[in-house]
Specification:
It is a single chain. This protein is mainly α. It contains five helices and no strands. It has one domain (5-116). The longest helix is centred in the N-terminal third of the chain and has 36 residues, at 5-40. The termini are far apart.
């Protein structure tokens, strides 16, 4: 019997290389879109490049209070708050709930739409308390 180990290894290497290249391309595309999104919101674009600080700024853009990002360190709460932030981000750019679902399920595509599209930053939408 012939051994196909070398052929399988070569195929796996090729698939891995394509995966890495696509992942890097999507990451760069997302960073560029985030840069544009930050600039639209009146923040310096470079702030999207710094880990944790970019999350703080994103919460500030969406909620008006960046310190809410600390809730991301609380297990289970982080999932709920992260989803709420995406919907508030959509509202901060004048988009509706459907766009919020788009941010939730197809994040990179909808961040590109926010960054490069015609959506204007209208500020954090706070609900009136009665």
């Amino acid at each position: 019997m012939e051994s196909y180990d070398a052929a399988y290894a070569a195929a796996a290497s090729g698939v891995s290389a394509v995966y890495v290249i696509l992942s890097l391309a999507i990451s760069v595309l997302t960073l560029v879109a985030m840069w544009k999104l930050f600039v639209k919101a009146g923040k310096a674009g470079w702030k999207c490049l710094i880990p944790f600080y970019n999350t703080y700024c994103l919460y500030d853009i969406a909620w008006g209070n960046g310190w809410l990002f600390l809730l991301m360190f609380v297990p289970c709460v982080n999932v709920v708050v992260g989803i709420m932030m995406l919907f508030k981000l959509a509202k901060a750019f004048g988009q509706g709930t459907g766009f919020g679902f788009g941010l939730l399920f197809l994040n990179t595509i909808f961040i590109l739409i926010l960054g490069f599209g015609s959506a204007e930053y209208v500020g954090p939408q706070v609900s009136a308390k009665n």
